[in-house]
Prior knowledge:
The structure holds 2 protein chains of 2 kinds. Chain A has helices spanning 7-25, 30-40, 49-61, 85-109, and strands at 28-29, 65-70, 78-83. Chain A is α+β, with helices and mostly antiparallel strands. In chain A, helix 1 (7-25) crosses helix 4. Chain A starts with 6 loop residues before the first helix and ends with a helix. By secondary structure, chain B is an alpha+beta fold. The two termini of chain B are 65 Å apart. In chain B, strands 15, 16, 17, 18, 19, 20, 21 and 22 form an 8-stranded mixed beta sheet that branches. Chain B has a 6-stranded mixed beta barrel with strand order 4-5-10-7-9-8. In chain B, a hairpin with a 5-residue loop joins strand 4 and strand 5 (195-202). The longest helix of chain B has 37 residues, at 399-435. Chains A and B meet through helix 1, helix 2, helix 3 and helix 4 of A and helix 2, helix 3, helix 4 and helix 15 of B.
Amino acid sequence: MTWPxxxxxxxxxxxxxLVLALVDETPxxxxxxxxxxxxxxxxxxxxxxxxxxxxxxxxxxxGWILGEWREAKGERRRRFYRITPAGRTVLADQRGVWQSFxxxxxxxxxxxx
Amino acid sequence: xxxxxxxxxxxxxxxxxxxxDAEIRDELAQHCADRVAELCRRGLASDAAxxxxxxxxxxxxxxxxxxxxxxxxxxxxxxxxxxxxxGLRGDLRHAVRLLRRSPGFTLGxxxxxxxxxxxxxxxxTVVQAVLLRPLPYPDPGRLVAVWEQSPQGITxxxxxxxxxxxxxxxxxAFDALGALGSPAFRAWTGDGRARRARVSSMTASAFTAxxxxxxxxxxxxxxxxxxxxxxxxxxxEDFWRGALxxxxxxxxxxxxxxxxxxxxxxxxxxxxxxxxxxxxxVVPLRLGPDDREQRRSHNFNVIGRLxxxxxxxxxxxxxxxxxxxxxxxxxxxxxxxxxxxVPLRDDIxxxxxxxxxVLLGVVVVVLLVACANLAxxxxxxxxxxxxxxxxxxxxxxxxxxxxxxxxxxxxxLAAVGGAAGIGLAVVLVRGLLAxxxxxxxxxxxxxxxWRIAAVSAVLTTVSAVLVGLLPALHAxxxxxxxLLHGGSAGGSHPRGRARLMLVGVQVAxxxxxxxxxxxxxxxxxxxxxVDFGYDPRxxxxxxxxLPGARYPDNDSHVRFYRDLLDRVRRLPxxxxxxxxxxRTGEGTLMTFSFAxxxxxxxxxxxxxxxxxxxxxxxxxxxxxxIPVLEGRGFLETDRExxxxxxxINQALRRLHWPDASPIGQRLSFRPGQxxxxxxxxxxxxxxxxxxxxPSPPTVYVPFAQKPPSxxxxxxxxxxxxxxxxxxxxxxxxxxxxxxxxxxxxxxxxRTVEAAFAERTARRRFATGLVAGFALLALLxxxxxxxxxxxxxxxxxxxxxxxxxxxxxxxxxxxxxxxRPVLIASATGVAAGLVAAVLAGRYLDALLFELQPSDPATxxxxxxxxxxxxxxxxxxxxxxxxxxxxxxxxxxx
Lengths: 113, 892
């Protein structure tokens, strides 16, 4: 069985998982999300502004995350994103898929071995 | 400079919604500020940090369309179109790639589409031209045929001249009303070899009613209708282009028909449907004062053009009123008679309507089978592609995209199949026209035009959407995890159920078609078993008609045919030869009523109901090998001078002399005016009109004894029995005719068998086509069943392997796999039987002595279909069971 995945789909798919996972922990603003992905992946995955915000807006449009303006004391107002119940379901799904996928890759290509 | 301003300068417009754009710019500005602060914290100089972030911002600005797309659900219409087109292009490329990668599926689906669309288009083209397209005249909806209705219940009775002339004076519903005589052959001489021309007669008003414009010259005017007017004629376009070699000076040319010189005044365009497209010459139909009194002889077809706004019902009512008036004036002739107005088109196509309707129904069923088959193939493929679809869904391909992609795939397939189908249709239409029996009217109007192509395109698209939708819906709803875990979808899976249902549907539809084909084939076979009552093999039939001008009396007729037959009998290879007034394959159109001596009938005239009459030469019965059952056949001595004799057939004997022998009894056609004729023999019944027509009670008289008042009976059909191929004596017969009269053209020359093949041509055509379509349906159904099982087995290979490894017997495993499919096809067979019985009544008109619900045919069809299902199911299972368990386990 072959899966004609495009790079774009793969990246978009994984990015969705990453963003959902991060805002599931706590509401975060855009810059923080980009930064956390970069630091937690040890710099392997990074999102430029040019692709981060389209992704956030798309997830928001799908109703998986919700953006709200908040003003912390002494700081400028920022847009914070939090996960929605729909987003939580998708996140659970995606975790399952990626686990299986990674396991499958491992079985085939011996990723952990 | 504030980041907000920088952002605003670089990204002035995003979604078009000012408030939303401001928010996005705010957010981006905040991001930039955060980013610069962080870069500075990492030790970068402020200038360098700003420059780097500005570069990132520029990159974002360049790709502002992605921001816009993501942020604004309602894009500008133009942009949305661009995005959609870009997506479509991608889908199309992807679809081409995928279809190329599975050539088996592509070929199967493409062929299914092409064959079914081709068949539907071809048949629909013919149906459209014959049944649906308006007649090629101006405002054709107002054209009608007007018939008399006889007291005996004949609804399309030709009209008497007296009634037609009265209608002309009294009927107010028509703009024009015209009469046509029956076409007849006349000898065309004076232009080289003597030939026959098919000549019809029409009144000028018939042309007015039709609204025909002549190709050249003029048509008849009112003056041409006058008795004693100049002999003028209009020729058909085909006759002009063919026989007259497109003579540019055709107007004014002389045509000698039956020794009468006609002047050509015009050419009728080919698209003329009335009188009929094969008429060579039309001469004026002239009705005089004598014809006004004639109400017993019904010889004319009447056509009319309704006045604008007059409905068919109103015209019928008006005509009934007119007829009631005429009946009041002529009660002795008209009591019980009525009239009917019917659309001209319906009148022309009435005989072929049932056949074409059945064919249309059949191809629609073929299309349904094809759709079911495609859906099955698609489902099977969707099954194989579930993992792909699932993964794409999970990693972010929207359901809409997936749906669109599958739809594009289906449409691509349909486009390819549809194009091939239309190409095939063009070929099929040509084939149909070449094979179609000559008696289907309006066939010369058949062309594949853009409307048919449009219908095909719609059919294609509808089938594509139908078959594409189900699997697409299904595939986009897939739950991925079990698949990735290596699970398999079994028969209880919804997809499995849908496939089984489709199998049932296909089987049911195929059964309906097969049953129809079986019924038609069986009926055709039965028809061919019917005994003609004579031996039709090796008999040549030659039609001759003597022009009255040169052969005025019975003596000349009798002498001519006797001399001719003497010459023909001497030809090498000729066994016997005789003549009869019956045209081969047409039966006799002459009927006479007669009185039986000493047994006056209860009717006012004292005569029996009219029965068909044939005037034959002495050796007719021997030549045709019609058995003489009682008494004797005709002898050379049965001449004008001998005792007047008559021979009857068995059917007539059963009717009037069921118990006693009729030999020696006497008949007279008009006691007191014509002599009493002694019955000297009884011969066997014959089917002169074809096997599907009953053998009518018939009176045979010697041609040599026809009374002086029958001098109009100038024609004979020679029947020449030969030792070998009848074609070998054609030359000799022609020479014999030429030696006696060089100006006498030969009529139709053909073998008796060929003449009867023509009679059954329509039946054979319909049977052949339906059988072809039924086989196509059977094949498609078998492919569908095979596909379902092959796919099912492939999915369950692992399970089958485990079961076999655990010691299950192959038979048990096979049963488990095959059972649902066989149950589905058995259900399909049952449903199909019900449908076949229900649909059967449409076949009734095409069947010969067979009920549409004939149990033997239906039973055999069901058995055949079920056997094919079993075979189609067995093949993939056998293959799976043949595999070693370990291998299937490894593969699974």
